[in-house]
Amino acid sequence: MSQTEVTQFGEFKLIDHLTEAFSIHHDSTKTSIGDDAAVVFHGDQDLLVSTDLMVEGIHFDLMYFPLKHLGYKAVVSNVSDICAMNGVAEQITVSIAMSNRFSVEALEELYRGIKTACDIYKIDLIGGDTSSSQKGLIISVTVLGRQKPEKIAYRSGAKPGDYIVVTGDLGGAYLGLQLLEREKLIFLSDPKITPQLDQHKYTVERFLKPEARKDIISLLDRVGVKPTAMIDLSDGLSSDLMHICRKSGVGAVIEDQLLPIHPDSKALAMEFNLDPSVCALNGGEDYELLLCVDPLEYPKIQYLPGFSYVGEILPAVEGIKLKTGSGKEHPLEAQGWVHF
Ligand code: ADP
Ligand code: MG
Prior knowledge:
By secondary structure, this protein is an alpha+beta fold. About 35% of the residues lie in helices and about 25% in strands.
């Protein structure tokens, strides 16, 4: 029998392919695969469950990723998926597999980062699993969260006319990674050269020490706005927006000129001869939120810091487009993070 390479499928087609034969046996399973977290009926508040895997050499490089930051980021990326459902994260389990290259002290450092995140985000570590691996470090975190059913925001709720709003600024994590990769190569070619990172502390921290936008979820609750749809920006705006469009059966237009980009990210993009907008559209791991908001609700967040209007949801026939400064429209291509 001929064998098919997984790269022929791509991540999302592979997930669909492997899971399509599964049926749901329990009424308590409200939403399964396909959103930032699964939703399980659990009394007056639904239970939200999400999981993420980080593999050394694929998701992180310990040459420049301090173990403490890695532990912190492993928690944050999971909390972010609960935020993307408009929920509140409460517990995690942490599973690790490591080769004999890792000492107890190294693992203590990893867990210091996990603990810092648990303290900041008020998360309880309630379990996990520990194993050895033949090569490298693997970390898997599962997060549990809660929200009232009527407050949960799905990827599927966007309607034509909704405003597309993003939080914070975009592209920073990607540019921070580019800088770390460049300095790593310089260091490897001549270990006497000290990496030059101070000038770009902001962007480097966007990659090494991202935050989940729990603050935005509280703010939305305070001002009484429930997004019609929401996703966290882990793979890059273009591919994450496509998930919303596919699940909601809609199109969208993003205005290039309105993308929020930090001055440090702009400066670094110039240094790398990259278009800052392209970095903002395709760079992953910013862990900001993309919200679709009913225009009638929008005034409630319009003037709050940290929200940027970047475009509008359109009928599906319009496709997914990028409008440039000159008013031209191009189809938006998803060039976000490719996992394999
Ligand atoms: P996110 O980027 O928000 O973490 P992913 O892109 O990793 O989400 O996953 C998309 C959806 O596919 C999620 O609902 C996730 O639970 C599901 N999923 C991913 N990998 C698998 C798998 N191997 N088996 C079953 N479901 C999976
Ligand atoms: Mg997500």
